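Students often ask what a 'structure token' actually looks like in practice. Rather than answer in the abstract, let us consider ECF subfamily RNA polymerase sigma-24 factor, a protein of 168 residues. Its sequence is given first.
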Amino acid sequence: MSFFLDEMEACVPALRRYARALTHDRDRADDLVQDCLERAIRKSSLWRPTGPLRAWLFRILLNLHRNEIRRDRRTPAAFPIDALPLEPPSPAAQTDRLALADTARAMQKLSIEQREALLLVALEGMSYAEAAGVLDIPVGTLMSRVGRARENLRSLTENGQPHLRSIK
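Now compare that with the structural description of the same chain:
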């Protein structure tokens, strides 16, 4: 069990990074990672040491996130009035910051399947085989999703016009 916990602890920064990229909310991401780690400990008897623990943890996190998305679709989100800014936001002065914001907005326009695949490969640096295992899809399907996601991002950030091609 000590090896399991040590290995799990080593995965926490990557899990946090992926959760923040999926949710765009630090608190929700932290909650998602905590839920993932709790479930992994509770279900540790289901993990088979023949496969990488990292991929198993990412799959748990991704399944929890998908469940959260389904739950959120059924119930409208409450938005506190005090969260509204008192003054309109001022435009960013730096070009890089604007480009990053454009990319983040474009990422949100991708289908969830494309976004999940691209984040695992580009942000987490997973191999195609490892990412396909996390998503439980064939490697060819993962490669197709990543390729389409990159094409869509390029189109959205270069032209400013959405030309999204969806693939499931």
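One point worth highlighting: The chain is about 70% helix and 0% strand. Ask yourself how you might have guessed this from the sequence alone, and why that guess would often be unreliable.
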